[in-house]
Amino acid sequence: MRPFAFSLSVLLAAPLLFAQGVDMRARIETFSADMRDLGRRYDVPMSAERRSRLTTRLGDEAKQLAAIDFDSLSHDARIDWLLLDNHVRRELEQLAEEGRDDGEVEELVPFAATIAGLCEARRRMEEVDPTAAAETMATLAQAIDRVRTGLREKEFEHLDLPVAARAVDRIGDLRSALRSWFEYRDGYDPLFSWWVRAPYKTADAALGSLHDELEARNGKLAGDSTLVGDPIGEAALLRELAFEWIPYSPTELVAIAEREFAWCDAEMEKAAKELKCADWRAALELVKRRYKPPGAQPQLIKQLAEEAIDFLEQRDLITIPDLAKECWRMRMMSPQAQRVNPFFLGGETIQVSFPTDAMAHIDKLQSLRSNNEHFCRATVFHELIPGHWLQQYSQARHRQYRAPFGTPFWIEGWALYWEMRMYDLGLAKSPEDKVGTLYWRKHRCARIVFSLNFHLGQWTGPQCVDYLIERVGHERAAAEGEVRRSVGGAYGPLYQAAYMLGGLQLRALHGELVATGKQTERAFHDEILRQNSIPIAVLRAALAQTPVPRPLPPWRFAQ
Fold first, then answer.
1. Are residues 76 and 165 in the same domain?
2. If you average pLDDT over every residue of the chain, what do you get?
3. Same structural domain, 84 and 111
4. CB-side exposure of 540: number of CA atoms within 13 Å?
5. Domain co-membership, 134 together with 196
6. How many helices (H) and strands (E) does the chain have?
7. Of 325, 369, 375, 371, which Cα lies nearest the Cα of 352?
8. Rounded Cα distance, 520 and 523, in Å
């Protein structure tokens, strides 16, 4: 009778399931699994076949979403529909942008289609004719050498530096793909190895030489090739902002940053007067000299993490599970990593930037000054609790299916919001701690200004470095690391702006819900974490008690 009873219960529940509408969570999970599988199968760089297949799957999803009756969905399902629809449209736009970007570097990598074709044939598990493959390798080497000759004869001087820098990245990707193609058969197929090994090595060496020569050329023109970057332009910035539901232009966002900067400047001057310093620069210099000696930094980080937890719990600001307090870890960052990340990184493991004995003397001093005690007090909780580690802890336990919709405006905005909130609540008691906190807040204002100006094509990487030194007070090594991290391609074009802007969004939402008495501090903060990482405008709709509209109306959060 048990199987029959189970079947009957399902049948009885069916009308209710249909009445509740589409299971958006299941749809998102299926879509995400499909895209992961397709991403692994179609992984060849600069591949038209890859873009075509992914575009087809995304287009199918867009059509199916459009056919759903949005008004029949539950509150939570409407949020999920908005998130998935936005994600699909964004992925389609990024594929189109990728195709346009690849087209701009085509004359520097005219051999890309040959390498992509070989790799795609391997993915289709096609048979290989060793003799023909050897001939292809020889022809490929000749094509690469023609580009190298053109480079030496200055045939590509008309190309913008960012396009040439992008070509360096593509050449590196293609070289890795070709290596995987060769190693798949080498040693397993004697005839393949006999014919192909020597011409492959020639082609591989040519690719390596082209990569290095082009990178050296870019570095010579830019002074430092790692600061070149690839500005996306105003039209692409506006598209990215629209996908984050941010109804401001880049120019308006820079104005918002300057307004926040003015507040920071005024607060910094107050702290400078308390320290009897002539101005904020003198106050900053005083604070930078108060660093821990070698070996003492880990204990300081531990103390600051515990201080923040006590501060939060005494004020009942947020739920902190015992396991979250128990399971975070710490490690020291390598000198190489500090070239890109001159400060902390965080999450479950806080990565501490501090000088090692192998670093040059000037680098040691700059790292010590950039990671002094008062700077650390303002940032340890950003990385751990209530910041990134508590976020990660919650993301693993609430609405995991929303992982594809992750956004730096939620990730970094949340941590920056807590920097503002903790300052307002008095965590920074001494003027030295206020200077340390305000330094970071100015840093986040500056990130909006320099990153947007860079992507608008108005500032170069070196100009961004100079701006951070002059306007915020960075050490040069720290400023270069910050800009290197921002323009290197590992982070999206809005990532640096997302810290302050996401924090301002959450502060505005706090004003709507907590300051008006609709929610307590704890309930508000706990619910933000339970929603997982989603654009803040959609989070606002999720927390509202009113029906979720389609489309969401513009939210001008910075009044």
1. no
2. 91
3. no
4. 25
5. yes
6. 25, 2
7. 371
8. 5
Residue 8 lies in a domain: no
Task: Give the DSSP per-residue string, 148-180.
Answer: HHHHHTTTTTTS-HHHHHHHHHHHHHHHHHHHH
Query: pTM of the full predicted structure?
Result: 0.89
Would you give the distance in Å from CA 96 to the centre of its chain?
20
- Please tell me whether residues 91 and 110 are part of one structural domain: no
Total domains in the chain come to 3
Three-class SS string for 394-449? HHCCCCHHHHHHCCHHHHHHHHHHHHHHHHHHCCCCCHHHHHHHHHHHHHHHHHHH
- Given the structure tokens 């038209």, which residue do they identify? 48
Residue ranges making up the domain that contains 479: 237-543
171 and 241 in a common domain: no
Domain boundary among 222, 247, 272: 222
pLDDT of residue 344: 67
For 292-337, give the secondary structure using H, E and C. Answer: CCCCCHHHHHHHHHHHHHHHHHHCCCCCCCHHHHHHCEEEECCHHH
Bond into 321 cis (ω within 30) = no
Altogether, the residues listed in the chain come to a count of 559
Q: How far apart are CA 276 and CA 268, in angstroms?
A: 12
Tell me the C-alpha distance between 541 and 168, whole Å: 43
Largest CA distance in the chain: 86
Sort residue 112 into left (φ over 0), alpha (ψ -120 to 50) or beta: alpha
> pLDDT of 331-372, one tens digit each?
887 777 766 666 667 788 888 877 777 788 877 787 788 788
- Other C-beta atoms lying within 10 Å of the C-beta of residue 491: 14
Same domain, 43 and 175: no
Distance of CA 21 to the CA centre of its chain: 34
Residues 493 and 506 in one domain: yes
Q: How far apart are CA 127 and CA 205, in angstroms?
A: 26
Q: What are phi and psi of 406, to 5 degrees?
A: -55, 140
CA–CA dist 174, 279 (Å, integer): 52
